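Bug #77: duplicate submission created two jobs. Keeping one. Sequence:
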Amino acid sequence: MTREEYNLLYEKYLSGNCSIEERKAIESYQDNFNIDKHEWNKDQMGDQEALKESIRSELFASIDRQQRKRIIRIRSWYSAAAAIILIMSSGLYFNSLKKKTPIIVKSESPRFKNDVLPGDNRAILTLDDGSQINLDDAQNGVLASESNTDIRKTGSGQLEYSTDNKLIQTVKYNTLSTPMGGQYQLSLPDGSKVWLNSGSSIRFPTAFIGAERVIELKGEAFFDIRENKKMPFIVRTNNSMDIKVLGTQFNVMAYDDEKSINTTLLEGSVQILKESGNAYLEPGQAAVLNKGSGKIKVAPADIEDAIAWKNGYFIFSNENIESIMRKVSRWYNVEVEYEGNLNNKDFVGTISRHKNISELLKMLELTGAIHFRIEGRRITVMP
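Kept job's structure:
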């Protein structure tokens, strides 16, 4: 059972909507949320059982009686960290690798009297003539037609292109852009699927003709490409890097404010093309292009982490607070400021992207290693 499957099943369990089989499955599941395999250091971390009992008491004190009856017994709970907070009711756990004693932050904290809703399916479609369509307000159905290509909004967060290549004489280009706090799904003229993350854009032709299928990406997207051996599919990113495929599933993270461009392959094969050198990926591998040096490194990939956004989750794997807050800033469309020394604070955790920002920040605060203040759409991060 994957982490996402467990979280979804647990939320269903808490709501009382599980079938008998599902209830048996989750109640017999051996929960093991080990952060790593290091031994518990009693000198640095204190007595393990006493710490677990203290945290458990704090958590249960904040849960109402009905929900308390539904809490699953935690069977295995270890960590190399001094403080691990496990809150199953929200499908989230966080671990501060540098803090000795957990601090439980109460939900009525005045710092969170202002809240920010999560992102949603929002995007702008720019046609070849420069005119724009706000997809938030557009009705389902055909939005426009360009060069024998119909552009249709098929549902919430979905845009579809259909064309007859035999009738195409002039290829036109469209751009789909998601704002901060937006995401959208696109079906390209060849039937390939694209999931666009927040603060991203994709420029593509209204029909694929010629020897290649070339699109341009800024930001992050997940691709499910329809195979066509006679017409390779090429994703062109900033920093003069191309990703060449025939038919495959992969994720590309190419934000301007990140130090690298990461390509993670799920299925098929991918060729990374760069002036400084090329690389080939096999399923389960990732290529990391360092923007500063121009060098490409291929290594085993954390698939679950790479596509968590597409599946509706944040997953942080030993990630520093600056990296975490860049993701938070894009999805919640907020500004982030920092106060004090925030070095040497890495976090591990999982939480739904459908939660309000206050819930995510409170869970981070439970580690005792970090604190936040919300003022309108500005988040201040403090030690």
